[in-house]
Amino acid sequence: MLVTLTGAFKNAGDYLIGHRARTLLATHTDHEIIDLNRKELTEQSYQLINSAKALLLTGGPAYQKKIYPDIYPLDLGRIEVPIVPYGLGWKGSLNQAPEDFKFEPQAEDFVKKIHQSSFFSSARDHQTVGILNRLGIDNAMMTGCPAWYDEEKLELDYQPRDINQLIFSMPAVPQDHVEPLLRYLAKKYPRAKKYIAFNAGYKSTRSKDRAKFTRWNYQMILKARLLGFTPVSFESDFAKFQEIMGAADLHLGFRVHSHIFSLSQRIASALIAEDSRGISQLEALNAPVLSARQPIQEITDQLDEIFATGAQIQTSVETMRSTHTQMLRFIEQFS
After folding, report:
1. Every domain of the chain and the residues it spans
2. Residues 128-165: pLDDT tens digits?
3. Cβ–Cβ contacts within 10 Å for residue 268, how many?
4. Which residue, 132, 148, 188, 204, has most beta carbons within 10 Å?
5. Residue range 2-148+322-332 in CATH 3.40.50
6. Are strands 54-58 and 33-37 parallel, antiparallel or unpaired?
7. CA angle (63 as vertex; 91, 316 as ends), nearest 5
8. Which CATH class is domain 153-320?
């Protein structure tokens, strides 16, 4: 048995990570896969963990300043089996260099302790591996995010197609480029069915400025409607996310896992990075790095090139395919 620890609450991207992570484990090991919610650990949870071969910390940007206790409130003294990070990445501000990132002292101690097993860990990008290396941790491998891999489509190449339906994924916090990007899509694809998508719902989940950000979301919905976009919420609805995202011919926006999902389905996609997660994923995928800090004309010029030829999209597809072997190396440890 393997136990995964995940935390999907509202954001459809978190559900995608957990789903793909468990599918990979179920496909490539003979273990029963049990999933626990990282915020709902009980005495029975620890008993279950200690009956497993390993506890896999599964999620997205978990390497934050306070990974412990904010992200993983684990009592390490009660866990008797190896703890192994699975596809975790770091999260910093947009212009923060990974060399400048530091954990809080108790969080750094936690990170070092969970890398003491004989298993090597899975990191979702090269920047995360570098951060761990600077802590003296040398048993982390860049495997990409588990969400990269839909193995039924792994051998397929990207093929350009007519754009009949498109998705624009909204950022987690207000970004000035949203309106001009909506206008860009409306002008470039006037006949396409267009959605403006909110992966975690219309209401902001941010602890600070929640009301302000929510008002901005609804303002953007009104402006998007005037441009022909239909709003859609994927809050806590992974099935809806898969259905609508999977039927699209093009994705553009700020959500990392909308981008990853689209690439995994060989759908044209471009990501605008709003923080370090986006930057590190674009670099890991050998994709053009588009940042929310760039001038809008510079971004739209690059988008024209990305969508015109599809060559850069195919490069990311090939990167996913080649990195898949690293993910399998990680998973085979648990066979």
Report:
1. 2-148+322-332, 153-320
2. 999 999 999 999 999 999 999 999 999 999 999 999 99
3. 21
4. 148
5. yes
6. unpaired
7. 60
8. alpha beta
